[in-house]
Amino acid sequence: xxxxxxxxxxxxxxxxxxxxxxQQLLPLSVLQLAxxxxxxxxxxxxxxxxxxxxxxxxxxxxxxxxxxxxxxGWLQVVYPAQASYRRxxxxxxxxxxxxxxxxxxxxxxxxxxxxxxxxxxxxxxxNVTHRQPRRS
Length: 136
Fold this sequence. Notes:
Mean pLDDT: 77
Distance between the termini: 46 Å
CATH topology: Chitinase A, domain 3
Radius of gyration: 15 Å
Number of domains: 1
Shape: globular
């Protein structure tokens, strides 16, 4: 996911920073954990997320713009068991995944990984809802 690289080209370090931003890192900060728990466990938030089609939630496909490098790309926000950096699926408990939960298009994201600030803007959010077939 080249679009997650920091502004300055550091070669191997740039790849490591991009990978760490999208990988599950433990322990989480208290704020990240509170943010995740709020959107997963809270029935009110879950209802608000399900009614807002443009809000990022687990399963959302997101187009991001790296405002430092002017690169853009797509990723999918998923639960930890489904995360795969190579497939572009990032965990909700990764630094970037935790920062994205609850955001809508045009939101700005800023996070720091290995003392490198990464700046993103959410361009597009796609959510697919699978409905149960009607029974006659």
